[in-house]
Amino acid sequence: MEQEIREYALEIGFDDVGFTTADPFPQLTEALVERKEGYSWISDGLLQLAHVADPKFVLPSACSIVVLIYDYYKQAYPQEFEGRIGKAYQSRLYPGKKRLFGSRLRLIREFLESKGMEVGVRPAMAERQAAVRAGLGNFGCNTFIYSPGRGSYIGIAAMAVSGEFEPTTAKKEHSCPDDCHRCIDACPTGALYAPYKMDPLRCIAFNSYGAGNFPGAPEDIPPEMRVKMGGWIYGCDHCQDACPHNQARLKQKLVPDAFLQEMVPRFDLPLLLNMDDQYFLNTVQQLMYGYIWEKKFIQRNAAIALGNSGDDAAVGPLSRALQDHQDLVRKYSAWALGRIGGGKSRAALEKALAGESEDAVTAEIRAALEIC
Ligand code: SF4
Ligand code: SF4
Fold it and tell me: Which of 10, 39, 154, 368 lies in the 20 to 30 Å Cα band around 105?
């Protein structure tokens, strides 16, 4: 059966498959409890510590976990998206029901069910821990899993199943050299504050997600974090791109991804900032799904990136966005104009202040005028 599952998974596009027991992951519970400030959002609603660390909360009849690896670095990523959209997001790696990766997950699930097994994946599986225990890779100091020969540009799916399988064992150790801390040095926010320790609340990727679309993701991003987000509007790759173990992958000569090439001009920041609902649904959502389902969060992130660009050409689009019907968009556009500064930004902010009725936006406009 293990062989049959492996063959089917590889046939539908996964790159590696492993099996482990459905025992809990006590180290994960310990780590989350130890760092509970950064993970307080896990204790809300459906997503609770016990759920994350024990596969039997996902599926009471679970005997094993099937772990699937997908290598998402098979085509070249456009240079224009570097520093703007994380590779995992560009590769559409998230399980939207009608998306490619979602279909892949559905197919493997149906395959397992057709063999008489119960399968569970929600509310959450400890995917990285399961991958390590199934021998498919090991943690790097940047908290990503390194798959032998692939590096860390991989997606991991883990499914609790009622079938009992022989656990797979480690193929090869990934180890971080004792004197390497490039990932920690590369993290602009200090989110990666020690080897194997990351505070999601300070992570650019986490902050870029939509509040309500991803548990714990903030609607409002603290000003000091906005500055450190630089040009990122979805995700962040710094701590992976800096890693010596990923350099061979980064230097590969690959065929450009035609879909992404087509998307490049459509993801111009001013265009995103002032897009309408149709543009969001028909164009932006093709790429930006997973953790951002609402237009205003892409607009917020585009405003931040434009502000951080310091480019005077952004003043026009940002001034226009001061009229947006969403408070969030007006607020972040005001912040961005303050960051760019100059006479034109000041004039736009003063005009907006006269017509603004929302307190939070008014406060942001005033703060922006102070630094203009
Ligand atoms: S994804 Fe970016 S912000 Fe988050 S830990 Fe890595 S380098 Fe830091
Ligand atoms: S940059 Fe160095 S310390 Fe960080 S994950 Fe890579 S090898 Fe490990």
Answer: 39
Distance CA 292, CA 306 (A): 19
The domain spans of the chain are 2-161, 189-229+271-371
C-alpha 338 – ligand 1 centre gap (Å): 26
Q: CA angle, corner 233, sides to 230 and 239, nearest 5?
A: 65
- What is the arithmetic mean of pLDDT over 117-144? 93
With 0-12 CB in 10 A as exposed, 13-18 as middle and 19+ as buried, what is 371?
A: exposed
Dist. CA 207–CA 233, nearest whole Å: 10
Output the pTM of the full model. Answer: 0.92
CB 46 within 8 A of CB 123: yes
Pocket of ligand 1 (CB under 6 A): 186-187, 189, 191-192, 198, 203-205, 236, 238-239
Pairing of strands 154-161, 119-120: antiparallel
Q: For the chain, first and last CA: distance in Å?
A: 66
- What is the rounded average pLDDT for all residues in the chain? 92
Angstrom distance (rounded) from CA 143 to CA 134? 17
CA of 121 to the centre of ligand 2 (A): 30
Extract the tokens encoding 230: 């630089």
Class of domain 189-229+271-371: mainly alpha
152: DSSP letter: T
Residues β-bridged to residue 19: 66
Torsion angle of the four alpha carbons 27, 32, 33, 39, in this order, in degrees rounded to the nearest 10: 180
Q: Name the CA radius of gyration of the chain, rounded.
A: 22
| CA-based nearest residue to 183, from 109, 102, 245 | 245
Distance, CA of 159 to CA of 179 (rounded, Å): 36
Residue 134's identity, in one-letter code, is A
Q: What is the pLDDT of residue 172?
A: 63
Q: What is the DSSP string of 288-342?
A: S-SS--SHHHHHHHHHHHHHHHT-GGGHHHHHHHTT-SSHHHHHHHHHHHHHH-S
Buried b vs exposed e over 2-11: b needs ≥16 C-beta within 10 Å? beebbebbee
**Residue 102 confidence (pLDDT):** 79
